[in-house]
Amino acid sequence: MLVEAGADPDAQDADRATPWLVTGVTGSVAMLRALLPAGPDLTVRNRYGGVSLIPACERGHVDYVREVLKTGIDVNHVNDLGWTGLLEAVILGDGGPPYQEIVRLLVAAGADVNLADRDGVTPLAHAIAKGQTEVAALLRAAGAR
């Protein structure tokens, strides 16, 4: 109802959160779908400089990641920490099935598997260091070095 009444999906609060950005944090596909008709800015950044995809990858929101990738959101966006959604899924994830699926989705959407963090550490190197053997295998299969 609020979207139909003209509510702004890009209105930011004091923490730079917007209704659109919050969908990535919560992983709410229903809210993503409710806000899309309002034309949210897919490039709007949260207080960490990330787009909605990044916190969804961090938190293991598989269904949200699958859905938001259909919007054309930048799969290789780098936040202020120097991390992409792929790096966040590996660094902050546990390598379990949800994170493996997120890695698959990101790779299929064109994520650069060799885009390193600001210290020069690649997603593959992080996965190996964390003992995420399945994620490492997925990254190697996608051409990671």
Compact summary:
The protein is 45% helix and 0% strand. The chain is mainly alpha-helical. The protein has a single domain (19-141), classed as Ankyrin repeat-containing domain (Serine Threonine Protein Phosphatase 5, Tetratricopeptide repeat), CATH 1.25.40.
Explain this structure:
The chain has helices at 19-26, 29-35, 53-59, 62-68, 85-92, 97-108, 123-129, 133-141. By secondary structure, it is mostly helical. Helix 1 packs antiparallel against helix 2 (29-35) and helix 3 (53-59) runs parallel beside helix 5. The radius of gyration is 15 Å and the shape is elongated. The model has no long low-confidence stretch (mean pLDDT 96).
Our count of domains comes out at 1
Q: CATH class, please?
A: Mainly Alpha
What's the count of strands? 0
Structural class: mainly alpha
CATH architecture: Alpha Horseshoe
What's the shape?
elongated
**Helices and strands, in N-to-C order?**
HHHHHHHH
CATH superfamily: Ankyrin repeat-containing domain
Radius of gyration: 15 Å
Distance between the termini: 48 Å
Strand content: under 5%
CATH topology: Serine Threonine Protein Phosphatase 5, Tetratricopeptide repeat
Largest sheet: none
Unreliable sequence segments: none
Kindly state the percentage of residues in helix. 40-55%
* Individual helix count: 8
Average pLDDT figure: 96
